[in-house]
Structures are given as C-alpha cells and as structure tokens.
Amino acid sequence: TGVYDVTFDVREGMAKATATTRITVTNNNAPPVFEQQDGWVVYESQPLAIKAFAYDPDNPAYAPAFRGAAGNLVELSFTPRTVSVSATGLPAGATFDTDTWDLFWKPDFTQAGLYSVTFHATDDGDGTGTPLSSSIVVPIRVLNLNRLPEIEPVPNATVARDGSLEIIIRAGDPDGQPVKISATSEQPGFPLPPFMSLTDNGDGTAVLRVNPKVGDRGDHAIKILATDTGDGANGPKLTSEYIFIVKVTSANEPPILDFLGDMIAVIGQRMVIDLNVSDMDQDALTYAMTGLP
C-alpha cells in the first residue's frame, strides 16, 4: 500500500514532453488459504497427526510454531501470527492445538468408520478492520483392525496312568467375535496324543480330557489354538497359540514285546525265534514261556 508518482517522458527530435501520474495502492485484505487435504485413512489404534496450515497472503513469511518435548511452545517465525485456526467436528479422543494448528488422534478399537473434521481460519483483517475467513472439510476414514484372540494361561498338569483329568480351556476375542478352540501336539505335524481329546463348547470354553494308559508316561507338550472369524471383515482369520505340558506318571511300566507274526516249523530242522523286548524303566527282565509243544 502507498502512494507512488510515476513520470513519463516523450521525445521527438529536440522536443520533450513530461507527464507525472500518481498511483495510489490501497490495502485490500486477502482471505487465508488452507493447504489442500484430500483426506486421511488410518487403522484403529494408529496415531494420526494433521497440520491444518492456513497461508495468509498478507503475511506469507509466517510459519506456525510447534511443541517441544516438554510441551513448550517453540516459535519458528520472526513475523507475528495473523491467522487463527480452529477445528469443529472432532471425533472422541481427538485434540486440536490452536497454537500449532496440529490435530492429534489415536482412534480406539471401537471407532472404525468415516469422520469429517472442519478447520476454520480467520485473519486479523490486515488493518482493514474486516477480518476474512475460510474453511476446509477434511474426511478421515478409520479402518477396522482385527485383533488376535486371547487364551487364558493354562497351568501345567500332572496325571497318573489309568487316571483321568479334565482341563478347562478359556479364550476370548477382544473384538467380541466368536472363537473356535482346538488343540494339537506342540510337535509340528502331529495331532493330539491318542489318550487326549478336546471338546469345543462353542462359548469360548473347551474341555481337554486326558486318560493315559500303559506306555503314555512322559511329558507331552500340548498346543492350544484359538481362531477368530476375521472380525466380520474380508481379511484373514487370526489364530493365537498357547503351549503347556501334561505330565503322565507311573511307578513302573510293563515291558513291551515287539510283534511276533506266525511262524512255520520244518520237521527235522531247528527253529530259532528272536524276541525283541523293551522296558521304559530299564529294569532287569526275566523271561518265561507257556504252551511249549
């Protein structure tokens, strides 16, 4: 703004003509201009930070402040702030800092959906006495994030041979979806031992029944699996695992005689039959036979 005198000279040969024109530039306030924001897409529990920068054509050198690690305001610009920015339509849990123009939000696991936040910018009028405003609507889409099912810890268990034991398994889904419970051996590719069975009750609980017999003594690592439904989305189902030990005890295990098939004897020839016997306790063994011809 100001008054400017501009002189024009015109010459023709030795003749000269001069004219002076006065140009008066009056102040004209320009409204703030937001940076274009087409929208944001985040997952549940993913932090979101948006800078709602509003440029003032009458104060182009200004840069907004930021917060230091201690929360103190750090100014970046040597020119004073001439625009104030506010926000409306903030989702639950979101905050907006009017000093730094920063929106912060970490949507929780119940806030999947579409939101719209409106930012408003108003300048100081640039000396005209008439402040100008502008606004921008920024869409925010929060995507559902499926979480792993949770299995309650199962303590290690001990059961004697020929005894019985029922172990209650409990699992839940933090997203409130049904959970399918199953069990297998901890060793990859192996099912449950034959003396164990699991029944899924369909209500987030299951029963592992253990009925060990001869030859089942030892420590058995069992893997419990809980699988969700994908939280109603088209994404993959998620499975959690929990491993615990079932110990089968016995004071003494009987020897085990390997299988003997039918034999054919030839008259007049000596017949030799090899017996393969094992004992889990490594005890000294005695042998006896009945039914000899």
What do these coordinates show?
The chain is mostly beta strands and 293 residues long. Helices cover 0% and strands 44% of the residues. The protein has no helices and 23 strands. A four-stranded mixed β-sheet has the order 4-13-12-9, with no helix packed on it. Strands 14-16-19-18 form a four-stranded antiparallel β-sheet, with no helix packed on it. It has a four-stranded mixed β-sheet with strand order 15-21-20-17, with no helix packed on it. Strand 7 (66-67) and strand 8 (73-74) form a beta hairpin. The protein is rod-shaped and about 155 Å long.
Give the percentage of residues in beta strands: 35-45%
* Principal-axes shape call: rod-shaped
Structural class, judged by helices and strands?
Answer: mainly beta
Radius of gyration: 42 Å
The biggest sheet, with number of strands, parallel, antiparallel or mixed sense and barrel status, is: 4 strands, mixed
**Number of beta-strand segments:** 23
SSE order, as H and E? EEEEEEEEEEEEEEEEEEEEEEE
In brief:
The strands form 8 sheets. A 4-stranded mixed sheet has the order 4-13-12-9, with no helix packed on it. Helices cover 0% and strands 44% of the residues.
